[in-house]
Design a protein that fits this description.
231 residues; 6-stranded mixed β-sheet; 9 strands; 26% strand; binds adenosine-5'-triphosphate; ATP binding; nucleotide-binding; ATP hydrolysis activity
């Protein structure tokens, strides 16, 4: 089975800081892969490299068989890295329409993604009136517009209240159930246990371990040492 994401010996240096230090990572088709680690571990930096936003210092990176930033790779990948930027005085629907026009996406697809993220009822309300959870879900909707094979989400539940977290986790599980490949980052062990098939643990830029979620239960101590406890 060809990996959709294949990273080998990845490093990223910022001046004297080695943000990513020799990361190897493979994400297989159809899996929900969790990239787990505390703040500053190197998760966002790695995901930014995978989506072509920044270049690595060294290492090889293949996404959907190509290089990040290649047109075909961008077409097949939907991502939400950090908080998505939307126009506050436009509705959720109009924000998606603007993006859809740019990406050549149909009106029907906009309706589909709004339904998927459970925002159909609030689609015509201004973005500024949305809760943080709804804003994040609109971000996922934007990532899904092109019907991508691979979805990359950077800490999608960060800052959400319990209800917002529950809705976002349910949505991510749905993406996995419909066969989409998802790579997400999180600093919450309980969260990746709930929604992921496989987990890579990163600490201080290095991959400390990789586990199937079932195996993770036996490795609580290792994980808790590397990451703060779930809240
Ligand atoms: P968080 O959950 O806080 O986003 P993270 O695991 O995503 O954490 P990164 O944001 O990738 O971690 O940061 C890894 C390290 O690289 C940190 O020490 C951070 O300070 C540093 N770093 C990240 N971006 C830059 C930058 N643009 N310039 C300098 N240092 C950076």
């Amino acid at each position: 089975m060809d990996a959709l994401v294949e990273v080998s010996g990845l490093t990223k240096r910022y001046g004297g800081t080695l943000a990513v230090d020799g990361v190897d990572l493979k994400v297989l088709p159809g899996e929900v892969y969790g990239f787990l680690g505390p703040n500053g571990a190197g998760k966002t930096t790695t995901l930014r490299i995978l989506t072509g936003l920044i270049a690595p210092t060294s290492g090889t990176v293949r996404v959907l068989g190509g290089r990040p930033g290649d047109a075909a790779v961008l077409k097949g990948t939907g991502s939400m890295i950090e908080s998505p930027a939307f126009y506050p005085y436009l509705s959720g629907l109009d924000n998606l329409r603007l993006l859809a026009e740019y990406a050549g996406v149909s009106r029907q697809r906009i309706d589909e993604v709004l339904e998927l993220v459970d925002l159909t009822d609030r689609a015509k309300d201004r973005f500024s009136t949305y809760s943080l959870g709804m804003k994040q879900r609109l971000g996922v909707a934007a990532a899904l517009l092109k019907d991508p094979e691979l979805v990359i989400l950077d800490e999608p539940t960060n800052g959400l209240d319990p209800a917002g977290m529950r809705d976002m986790r349910r949505l991510i599980r749905e993406l996995g159930t419909e066969g989409r490949t998802v790579l997400l980052s999180s600093h919450l062990l309980g969260e990746v246990q709930q929604i992921c098939d496989r987990v890579g643990i990163i600490n201080a830029g290095r991959m400390v371990a990789e586990h199937n979620v079932d195996e993770l239960r036996g490795e609580q101590e290792l994980v808790v040492r590397a990451t703060p406890k779930d809240t």
